[in-house]
């Protein structure tokens, strides 16, 4: 589930979101359209026609952040929750710039199954994942920025590999996978109310974390001064993701008025830090 307010390279961003989550094992998307450009609208209609996306209008006659918070975020979250109930085993409530990425398992269903073999998940109503900011102001990964492939250079989950070393605690910026039938009320960062007898499992960060790709959350560029680590876990999906996005782009290019190749808007980046606050967190295989 996500509210649609894309910007920048919207078409590529949308294809990356849909195709990477598809690789991660997601079968259906419920999207809430607040503002949407013609190219992205065309792309989504193709996914709608294939039964992969449900696209719902989300234009409220209220002033966001004055009369209601963030375009009616909590109404959208709970609409999605109850639409998913008894139709899907699990639902992830995330935004377009957020990806739940397993550290060892290949897909989210495999992760849930793996956790069930190691922890008691019988009463689990939601799986919480700690947030890691991959600030867009940090420089692109040199392995990707030097690639001649415009698709590889354009995908944010590949080119942005530096993240904050310290993860946010659960319930602060975290996101979750839930079992809809065990939830009464969904919140943004955690479930607000469960069916009695159910609760949250805080997933250990060595099993999976939330990759959150965005600019500094408080404005300016000071966030890049925080301790950081290079985390290439998402590169495990590099080959499959690039090929799937390339194939879908070529298939939709003429129909949706896309350029021959994706063009990513240039962004001023801050040099990656060096020294004691800069580490390499993990190097993953590519497949």
UniProtKB/TrEMBL annotation:
Q: Which GO terms describe its molecular function?
A: glycosyltransferase activity
Q: What class of enzyme is it?
A: transferase
Could you list the residue ranges forming a coiled coil in this record? Answer: none
What membrane topology does this protein have? Single-pass membrane protein
Its EC number is 2.4.1.-
Has keyword Hydrolase? no
Q: Which UniProt keywords apply?
A: Glycosyltransferase, Membrane, Transferase, Transmembrane, Transmembrane helix
Give the UniProt subcellular location, in the record's own words.
Answer: Membrane
Q: Which InterPro entries match?
A: Glyco_transf_92
- Top-level lineage group: Eukaryota
What is a single Pfam family found in this protein's UniProt entry?
Glyco_transf_92
Q: Which GO terms describe its cellular component?
A: cytoplasm; membrane
Parts of the chain that traverse the membrane: none
> Which protein family is named in the record?
Belongs to the glycosyltransferase 92 family.
Name it: Glycosyltransferase family 92 protein
Q: Which organism is it from?
A: Timema poppense (Walking stick)
